[in-house]
Amino acid sequence: MDWSKTFRPMLLAEGSLGGLHGQGEQLAEAQGMEVEVFGPETGWNFDEATHRAAFMKRLEQEYPDEVFFAPTCGPWSIMQNLNARTEEQREDLTEHREWHHRVHLTFVRKAYLTQIKQGGHAHIEQPAYMHFPGRPRLSEIYPV
Questions:
Q1: 98-132 pLDDT, tens digit each
Q2: Which residues pair with 122 in a beta bridge?
Q3: Does 125 map to a domain?
Q4: Is residue 137 part of a domain?
Q5: Which of 16, 17, 31, 34 could form an SS bridge with 21, CB 3.0 to 4.6 Å?
Q6: Rounded distance between C-alpha atoms, residue 112 and residue 120, angstroms
Q7: SS3 assignment, position 77
């Protein structure tokens, strides 16, 4: 039996919230997966509520096999703490982190849980040195 004609290739939806995506796309394609990247390089801007809603609609209608999220680590980087030298800079950083958490990380959580509830696979990339002062790590926010 020719399995390649029996089953469709797995679909990976890669949500690149920071505008950069790693080697996930190339590795998935090398394994025979169909990949669609959702990020600034493909016209998606997850800062916009309409783009987040459109992604959720597609997620709920198309049921990809795998969703890989890569939220930007910029506001959570340890370097941001070092660069925020004045009280104003620290307040700006805190405000930016609050916004990022409210917009991006909440969206990632919603999409992640939707994907799991539909029976698909989902993964979230968290850089090793991402710093969440006063907040749980992503692995604590998204238990399976």
A1: 898 888 888 988 998 999 999 988 888 776 666 66
A2: 67
A3: yes
A4: yes
A5: 16
A6: 9
A7: strand
